[in-house]
Amino acid sequence: MNAHSKVSFTSLVKTAVLGHVLAILMLNNANAVPCFDNPQSAYEYILSQENANTQAREQYTVNINRASEGELVSLNGIGSSKAQAIILYREMFGSFKTVDELVKVKGIGAKTVEKNRRRLSVQD
Fold first, then answer.
1. pTM
2. Which residues of 35-58 are buried (b: 16+ CB within 10 A; e: fewer)?
3. What's the rounded Cα separation, in Å, for the pair 97 and 37?
4. Distance of CA 75 to the CA centre of its chain
5. Any idea what DSSP says for residue 35?
6. 3 state SS of 120
7. CB 3.0-4.6 Å disulfide test: which of 8, 30, 69, 103 passes with 83?
8. 35 Cβ partners below 8 Å, 6+ apart?
9. Residue 78 burial (C-beta neighbours within 10 Å; 0-12, 13-18, 19+)
10. 62 and 72 in contact (C-beta within 8 Å)?
């Protein structure tokens, strides 16, 4: 390679990197947070976004016979190890017939089932 081809390659790389940066900036602007004139307005906006996210998460129904570990950990009181226990239980003993059968899984009690009852299902 001579000096001229190195410059061409370098400028090509710079152009490609710049194109990627611009694409990322354009994507980020699609979800941009509005500007606020005072901290109280910004705080209220953040609270409203968090409330909307919480409501959406709480309305999502989880089918305990098909749910992945990630879906199960979205439930109240269910961490990774309990989610794995649910999955292992259904693999060993088959599908849950009712939501109440979830108490048969080690580490899951009636209180956990009750906290999550409106979000749980055993069929689609």
1. 0.57
2. eeeeeeeeeeeeeeeeeeeeeeee
3. 55
4. 12
5. P
6. strand
7. 69
8. none
9. buried
10. yes
